[in-house]
Amino acid sequence: MTATTRPHMAPTCEPAWSLVCELCGRAYPAFAACTGCPDCARAGRAGVLEVSGCLPRRGDPGALTLGEGRTPLVEAPAIARRLGLARLHFKIEGTNPTGSYKDRYVAATLNAILPFGVRRIVVSSTGNLGVAAVAYAAAAGLPCLFLAAAGLPGAALIQAQSHGATVVMTDPVRRHVVFEHAALHRGWFPIGLRMPRRISNPFGVEGYRGIAEEVLADLGQPPDAVLFPSARGNGLFGAWLGFRDRPGTRPRMIACQPDTANSLEASLRGGLDVPAELPPSDSVAFSTRETTADVMALRAIRASGGTAVSASDAEILAAQADLARAGLFVEPSSALPLACLPRLIASGALRRDAAVVCVLTASGVRWAEHLPGLPPVPRIDPTAEALDRFLSEAGLAD
Questions:
Q1: 149 in helix, strand or coil?
Q2: 29 and 11 in contact (C-beta within 8 Å)?
Q3: Do 17-63+101-204 and 73-97+205-370 share a fold?
């Protein structure tokens, strides 16, 4: 069986959305798209499809949901004071059902394709997308094949297996080869990213519109800047769609990347129209160490008057520790906005009186075993004397 760009079967009711190619402008009726614009493909081009209209979402009758979205927007006064920022907020996406913002992406994707009779899905991921896809596939009663990038923490693999997925590990750089084979030649519907490639997902970014809607509702006004951890940049682009489509609510979108995988920063610096392709690299920010980004993320940054900035591993880990001491436990990649804030302020790219929202994309629970430098937990006897002795030795006695 081969995945195609035609419906598996007719939906039970007429969808309230259609698809449009961002390259050639051709419009298509709703279908379970996974390989981009058919017309462009026949001409040897990679035309990425975009959704026109509204996909089913949480609260709609019959929509698949695990309760994604409606995540908190909080302040961290100690961090704001240290940076000299009067209006600093953090959007806590780690409270989504599987612990990351990818739940929004997967829910949007499945709600679009399930009416067309999709029977099984495949996902290739550095962690969060894979776990989200597995969980929502389980909720939909679908088998899921998870092609995990080697180096994922054991907690992510255990969570995926517990949901009943078939999990295999493969090379982080070349995993797209087996992903595309499963999708194009073995009939597994691919939950991938939005990219001008052989496999492209037009649906998932629509789920990120909710981030913008919730920020606007909670703040009561648009922020001046939104800082987003970015690998391919799908999250930043999707949130931008939510801001862009509301008049007068267009904050500057700022991509935050590791300095070893800073395709968006390099592209802006070089004045490129298409994101730069960088060599494979390593970083503690495992979820964001991709070699390139989606062109629409680059365009969203420019359209919003935003920018892209990067941080070192040391800065990322320091920011993660600062957030943890403020009660916010995130994975290293999610600490990128805080890691990048001092550089933005020092360069004048961000005013100290600006209203700033940092999107913290995922919980740190799955990555806890990778945290460096933490001492072993001491053990004491269950006696008052032992506790007093421990407090005294730790400098915590009265």
A1: strand
A2: no
A3: yes
Task: Give the per-residue SS3 of 275-331.
Answer: CCCCCCCCCCCHHHCCCCCCHHHHHHHHHCCCEEEEECHHHHHHHHHHHHHCCCCEC
CATH top-level class of 73-97+205-370: alpha beta
69: left (phi over 0), alpha (psi -120 to 50) or beta: left
Instruction: Record the pTM.
Output: 0.93
- Per-residue model confidence as pLDDT tens for the chain (398 residues): 333 333 345 565 779 999 999 999 999 999 999 999 999 999 999 999 999 999 999 999 999 999 999 999 999 999 999 999 999 999 999 999 999 999 999 999 999 999 999 999 999 998 899 999 999 999 999 999 999 988 888 899 999 999 999 999 999 888 989 999 999 999 999 999 998 889 999 999 999 999 999 999 999 999 999 999 999 999 999 999 999 999 888 999 999 999 999 999 999 999 999 999 999 999 999 999 999 999 999 999 999 999 999 999 999 999 999 999 999 999 999 999 999 999 999 999 999 999 999 999 999 998 887 676 778 889 999 999 999 999 999 999 87
Instruction: List C-alpha distances in Å: 296 to 101, 124, 200, 238, 239.
Output: 19, 21, 13, 9, 12
**Domain extent listing, the chain:** 17-63+101-204, 73-97+205-370
What's the CATH class of domain 17-63+101-204?
alpha beta
